[in-house]
Design goal:
It is built from six helices and seven strands, in the order αββαββααβαββα. It has 151 residues and is of the alpha/beta class. The protein has a single domain, classed as CBS-domain (Roll).
Amino acid sequence: MIDEGFIEAKESSDPLANVRVGDVMTPGATTVSIDMTLLEAVRAVAGSHHRFYPVTGDDGALAGVLSREVMERAPGEQSVRESLERPALIAVASEPVIELVRRMQLSGADRAPVIADEQTRKVVGFVSPADLLRARLRQTTTDESPFEIFE
């Protein structure tokens, strides 16, 4: 097929080839409102250990991300709106995980907020390396037969 200009899909042998981001993400991500101060944001995420938090508007749409580092270093009265960053990567719940992993590799990002769709940009979750590893392990154990050490 290569002679004819077609390249066969390599991901067909990958257990994650048919898995969607929405199936592996952590749903209900802890979000921060764009109208909060940094002090309010710190209080809102107290007890969590994440490095980045999706920032949303009143409609739940993704406005950016806020890093824990910014929350800890900037003055508490500073607004989230002034402190948010553009995410390095945004995942869509319906996209194949294998495509997200490719985009992560290209962008250098290792995690991403997950939105329902491009139109509403409503935050529905977050995907991290731990989510991807859990999905890979889950798919491996369901797709592959267990090996035996002794016969």
